[in-house]
Design brief:
Layout (H helix, E strand, L loop, with lengths): L1 H18 L15 E6 L4 E3 L3 E3 L1 E5 L5 E2 L5 E4 L5 E3 L4 E4 L3 E9 L2 E11 L5 E7 L2 E5 L3 E3 L1 E6 L4 E2 L5 E4 L5 E3 L4 E4 L3 E9 L2 E2 L3 E6 L4 E8 L7 E2 L1 E7 L2 E6 L4 E2 L5 E6 L9 E5 L7 E5 L9 E6 L4 E7 L2
Parallel strand pairs: 1-10, 2-10, 12-21
Antiparallel strand pairs: 1-4, 3-8, 4-5, 6-9, 7-8, 9-10, 11-14, 13-18, 14-15, 16-19, 17-18, 19-20, 19-21, 22-24, 22-31, 23-26, 24-25, 25-29, 27-28, 27-30, 30-31
Length: about 300
């Protein structure tokens, strides 16, 4: 009888490792903010050997600031820009680097900072508007302005424009952005080795829709990314995942719509996840999109959510 019990324990642990492994948790006890970080910088460029202090403020899902002392700072190139754990940034050599603030349970934030030796050279590029929401076929004109190390505008600069997902929204040589399909992309302008901050452009299928970006459940090590769009079609709902959708694999993964970021009494199951990658659709009849604020990817056998997208 003892051998049989050990057999069942071994089988249970084997199945458990397929979905949770070291991530076995009581989901109700996971304290997640589903929030974001805002970086405040004195300026976007520093002279070599000059230091400035960056501040990171964490906000919860209700856009209220919350206390978080665990912000981590990293530079994409420490030979150009260095930053310590207190957010003190120093210019090391001429160039530009991205500085990232991250904290568990919060979407990370990134800012571009350049280091210069000649105060008259291009040190930063500002682009307006700083974000955009478009419907398919809609357009918006982006305006870029170059500034030198002391903040003066530099005229007669030709900019190169880039879209990280041109199939979602393209941008021409004049900065005109055109929405192509539902999803999200980042637009930037550059001149030489200096690039602007990324400008996020979200494209919706229609005005009667809500969109969100998948984030990982910080209580686990699973990965989840991509865009989700919830569309109201008369009395029915259509949930669409973009081409960029990706999820860690696991048994019994299901899709839920929910008023909160956890599977609860108000949640509605839409069926098993059709694929861990790529575009896919789910339908729900006789419901309103106003009932739901989250899309959740949930492992039913072990009651663990891999992550969610907050719909706005």
């Amino acid at each position: 009888m003892k051998k049989l019990s050990l057999f069942y324990i071994a089988v249970s642990l084997l199945l458990l490792s397929g979905c949770v492994g070291t991530d076995l948790i009581n989901e109700a006890s996971v304290d997640t903010e589903d929030g974001y970080i805002v970086i405040t910088a004195e300026k976007q460029s520093v002279q070599i050997n000059e230091s400035i202090t960056l501040t990171g403020t964490t906000y919860n899902a209700s856009d209220n600031p919350v206390n978080n002392e665990g912000i981590r700072w990293t530079s994409s190139d420490e030979s150009i820009i260095s930053i310590d754990n207190n957010g003190i940034l120093t210019g090391i050599s001429v160039g530009q680097a991205s500085v990232t603030a991250s904290a568990q349970g919060f979407a990370e934030a990134t800012v571009m900072i350049s280091a210069f030796a000649d105060p008259n050279a291009i040190a930063s590029i500002d682009v307006t508007p700083t974000q955009a929401e478009l419907e398919i076929g809609g357009t918006v004109m982006m305006i870029a302005v170059a500034k030198n190390g002391i903040g003066e505008t530099i005229d007669n600069i030709t900019f190169a424009w880039n879209s990280t997902s041109p199939n979602v929204a393209s941008v021409n040589s004049n900065g005109l952005v055109t929405a192509m399909q539902a999803g999200s992309t980042n637009i930037s302008a550059s001149s030489g080795n200096i690039r602007s901050q990324d400008i996020q452009v979200n494209v919706r299928s229609a005005t009667n829709s809500k969109m969100g970006t998948f984030v990982n459940n910080p209580g686990t090590s699973y990965s989840l990314s991509g865009i989700a769009e919830l569309i109201q079609e008369n009395k029915n709902l259509l949930l669409k995942f973009g081409d960029d959708f990706s999820s860690s694999d696991g048994p019994g993964l299901y899709v839920y719509l929910s008023p909160t970021q956890s599977v609860s009494a108000g949640s509605v199951e839409l069926g098993e996840l059709k694929s861990t990658t790529g575009a896919q659709e789910y339908n729900l009849n006789n419901r309103s999109m106003d009932e739901f604020d989250y899309v959740i990817i949930h492992c039913k056998p072990f009651n663990v959510s891999f992550g969610w997208a907050r719909l706005n």
